[in-house]
Amino acid sequence: MAVALADSLFLSISPDAARTKVLLFLAVSMAPFAVVAPLVGPFVDRMKGGQRMVVVLVGVLRACVLVGMASSLDSLTLFPLAFAALILGKTYAIAKSAIVPNTVNDEAKLVESNSKLGQIAGITGFVVAGPVAALQLIDTRAALGLGVVAFLAASLNAYRLPKMAVQVGPTDAREAEELHSPSVVAASIAMRTLRFAVGFMFFHLAFWLREEIAGTAWFGLAIGLSGLATLGANFAGPHLRSRMRVETMLFTSVVFIVVIGLFATWYDRVVGGIVLAAAVNAAAAIGRLAFEATVQRDAPDANRGKTFARFETQNQIAWVCGGLIPVIVSPSGWLGFAGVMVIGFVGAVMFWRAGGIVIGSRGGRARGRAHRPR
Question: Domain 15-367 classified CATH 1.20.1250.20?
Fold first, then answer.
């Protein structure tokens, strides 16, 4: 869908016009979460048949949306269909996070399971880019048609997922206690910091590189390396988990962007900015694996659909807020890199003060369930 509907926000219009369009894009990117958080999350938890049926329906509906897009490429109908695609994409992300704990028997495998899903997504994205681009040259509808086939295949394969009983009761004291535990609060702080940095760095490079020679090529290289860094981080996640706790993974991810931000600020070159962009995306990928594993482990009694919908909303708000700063202010290269360093430093301090290092442990899930009445 992204290839079929590709249109440049930055390269075909003036910087001032691009700034206005990007601000509009950031506002629109929040809209799906306004639907996902209050409506879709509880729906995922309460729907008869559980999260598996949600994944099945999402696949079918996304295929239908692409069929609608193929017949509305020159119509205003395309915009509500794109909005529906965003909502369905976020719905799947929430259902996926809710399903993972029910497919593994050992909490130590949570990071590995989340990592495999990230690896599959990253590899598939690279593999499919070539064929989709070729189809796009033939006809945009052909590219969208391949997406229809893929979503229908995903929907059929979703029936292989185990049936799960979902929690349908309202938020109770135990759920509230788990979601406000030091480990979960600290993990959410680290994740929002990383997402803030990702949003900031993406738009900082997008506008700063416009003024550089071969800025378009540099920006394309930054996006490509960031994608590879994210994929590599998903492969590295399980190996890191075997050597450290998830709390340490989160803290290390935040500190990592401080160190690379310091290097990029000192180096003050385009290459340093590209390296920093890749590092920030890699750190965010590692952090996401650790964050999801922490919530899945330390909040076993929470309604997961609603919980992950809320966290996804918070993370997206952080991404939008991070992106707004360089769009409005347009700092110079080194100043933007220094900004990433400051963002990481503040996040690391907040994570430490929230108790993420001292209190978190491998046995968090066992503690969360120990007080249940028999």
Answer: yes
